[in-house]
From TrEMBL:
Pfam family of the protein (one): IreB
Protein name: IreB family regulatory phosphoprotein
UniProt similarity note: Belongs to the UPF0297 family.
InterPro entries cross-referenced by the UniProt entry: IreB
Signal sequence range: none
Organism expressing this protein natively: Acidilutibacter cellobiosedens
Length: 81
C-alpha cells in the first residue's frame, strides 16, 4: 500500500505547527513535549486554547503533522550533508 497525502495542506500544516508552538511557548509550556503528547494521544488538552491554538491544531490530521515534521527534518538533513 502506498500512502499519499494531499499536497494542498502542506503550507497550512506548517503555519499551524508554528502558531501552536508560539502559543505554547507564550503560556510557559514546553512546546515540544506538549505537541508530542498531542500527536501520540490525540488528546487536544495537551494544546493550550491561547491564540486559538487548540482549534487550529485540530484542523489537520495528526498524520499530516507527523508528515510535515518528517519532511522538514529530512530536507534539513540533506542540506547538512
Amino acid at each position: 500500500m502506498k500512502f499519499e497525502s494531499p499536497k494542498e495542506n502542506v503550507n497550512e500544516a506548517r503555519d499551524i505547527i508554528l502558531t501552536v508552538y508560539e502559543a505554547l511557548k507564550e503560556k510557559g509550556y514546553n512546546p515540544i513535549n506538549q505537541m508530542i503528547g498531542y500527536i501520540l494521544s490525540g488528546d487536544p488538552t495537551y494544546i493550550t486554547s491561547h491564540n486559538n491554538a487548540r482549534s487550529l491544531i485540530r484542523k489537520i490530521e495528526r498524520d499530516e503533522l507527523i508528515e510535515e515534521l518528517l519532511v522538514f527534518y529530512l530536507k534539513n538533513e540533506e542540506k547538512n550533508k
